[in-house]
Amino acid sequence: MEPFTLDQRMDVEFFDFERLKALVAELFELSGLDSPDAAVAASVLVEADLTGVWSHGVARVPMYRERLRRGAAKARPNIEIAHVTPCVARVDGDDGLGLVVAPRAMAKAIDLALANGIGLVGVRRSGHFGASAYYLRQATARGCIALSFTTASPAIAPWGAARPFFGTSPFGFSAPTTDDRTFLIDMAMSKVARGKLKFAAQRGDAIAEGYAVDAQGTPTTDGKDAFYGAMLPFGEHKGAALSWMMDVLAGVFTGAAFGGEAGNPFEDLERPQGTGHVFIAMPCNLFMPTEEFAQRMAELDRRVKSLPMAPGVERIFAPGEPEAARAEANRKRGVPLTWDVVANLQAEANRSNVAWPFDA
Q1: Is the pTM of this model over 0.90?
Q2: Hey, what domains does the chain have and what are their CATH numbers?
């Protein structure tokens, strides 16, 4: 049984993008974030839903607010940025939300890149930052190629081990193109995003075979058993090795939590996560004019899409294109949310005495 997608479910409602973003921003502001940070945090989540990455969208608002309520994350962290070299900076997130820390860190990497040809920023004492795609698009909007790396709470077992230890730790890469699209890769080291298991567990949905094992190491299609078991890496030992690499780069290298220390954002509500990130940005015109780079990107796209298609395939997509197409459609029809996400968001609004802005 394949896990559901939003387009397959009958209980989806569509919500105006701007009003949804304003609601989430208001909720974050009432949780203590200042207005600019609340607006950015809301954008990270609502844009994930806009592109169809619902596992990293507004479904996570209650979790982030609970972390703020319990003091596991600071609403107004004292984020410190220190230069290590002219093109390298270290960011101490002071246990703020990753949604607040990561946008500033990527912005710094871009500034360094535009000034020096490359920018590298290492982050410690951050938290779960949502979908990497948001930060990658920050870079392409300013004419940069970018890479992102992050640690995460234990979810994947090292190859040959019997329990989860490394995070799903998404890797990201982006490059600008000629038509305002972004060539964008945002992928976890697991076969499926762990957030999808979390919400499958809540909804009682089954997951596909081969995605996870239960706490005893037995393959399972039960979302709850999978969430409390271990994710399986893509590419078997290769994905497991990359999850280890992410722990080295974003954990050991930055001074962040590593080796199974990063807190689970949903369950470890009494302590900061200690998440680490690395952002790298490079201007796309380092080796040639921007126009030539754009033409070469377009030619690469043309060559790939002119290849013979495999049986049953109607179109070859570049990385990031399906999400961009969903975003375009959802800006017109509204952001799709399932009934349980809506109910949880309404509960957060009621808890904070915020009027629900979508009543007829």
Answers
A1: yes
A2: 1-70+334-360 (1.10.1530.10), 79-190+233-319 (3.30.1370.60)
